Amino acid sequence: MKVVCVVQARMASSRLPGKVMLKLAGEPVLSHVLSRARRISGVDQVLVATTRNPEDDLISDWASAEKVEVFRGSEDNVVERLLLAADFFGGTHLARVTADCPLIDPAVCDAVITACLEEDADFGSNYLPPTYPDGLDFSLTKVDVLKSLSESGLNKHDREHVTTVFEKNPERFRTINVSSDVDLSGQRWTLDNYEDLIFLRALLEKVRDADLGTDYGTILRTLRENPEIASLQSNMMRNYGHIGKNAPHNSE
């Protein structure tokens, strides 16, 4: 078995263009995501999967300079892009992370991978139902199962959002979900709009200034101790892009 972690990234964003390369605590958002993905002990390979669009040359060039493997593919058929990337590196399991989640927690991701492999699950996540803050979402999929689904035909929405075919049809697959002991799904730690950017910058500057770690528990404590930062979280609806098949958002 080989777990390939693919970080989905592109410059296009209707609400916050170029968000994955914006700076947080002096580093691009994508750098934070990759740093955390590399600390997931159950992952064998980490890479960036972006599109062939000229605007995404910036992502490809930056990743190459940082010695991160890059795979470029279709903008709209994200399933194909991720499958080709996982195949290229010999992955049996595809771990999916979107580049707008700079606070993903390696330990939470490890818990999903461990549960999936122990149960021989086709698909596993930590958000069905969501109990972790928005921005800690992580999933693991068997490559051969996703490939079979892709070859048999997926609608446009499922090709774009990758995991919705599992999320909408759990009875068709062996699935698992890892839940938090406390429901914190109302917290928003992702990056999709300017309010999110202001919040994340304030949070990470506070953490950096205090020389604190950035694990899940430390962030929670920091927000409890600094309500003025916690109050900056956007009230935007969670998983906007997964609401309906005509929804315009694709988190990357």
Summary tags:
252 residues, alpha/beta, Spore Coat Polysaccharide Biosynthesis Protein SpsA, Chain A, seven-stranded mixed β-sheet, two-stranded antiparallel sheet, 10 helices, 9 strands, 15% strand, globular, disordered C terminus
What is the topological layout?
Elements (H helix, E strand, L loop, with lengths): L2 E6 L14 E2 L2 E2 H9 L7 E7 L5 H9 L3 E5 L4 H11 L4 E6 L7 H14 L3 E3 L13 E4 H10 L3 H6 L2 H5 L6 E3 L16 H16 L6 H10 L1 H4 L22
Parallel strand pairs: 1-4, 1-6, 4-5, 7-9
Antiparallel strand pairs: 2-3, 6-8, 7-8
Helix pairs in contact: 3-5
What would a concise description of this structure say?
With 252 residues, the protein is of the alpha/beta class. It is built from ten helices and nine strands.
Describe this structure in words.
The chain is α/β, with parallel strands linked by helices. It has one domain (3-242): Spore Coat Polysaccharide Biosynthesis Protein SpsA, Chain A, CATH 3.90.550.10. Helix content is 37%, strand content 15%. The protein is built from ten helices and nine strands. The protein has helices at residues 29-37, 57-65, 78-88, 106-119, 143-152, 156-161, 164-168, 194-209, 216-225, 227-230, and strands spanning 3-8, 23-24, 27-28, 45-51, 69-73, 93-98, 123-125, 139-142, 175-177. The strands form two sheets. The protein has a seven-stranded mixed beta sheet, sandwiched between helices. It has a two-stranded antiparallel ribbon with strand order 2-3. Helix 3 packs across helix 5. The longest helix is centred in the C-terminal third of the chain and has 16 residues, at 194-209. 42% of the residues are buried. Mean pLDDT is 91; it is low at 243-250.
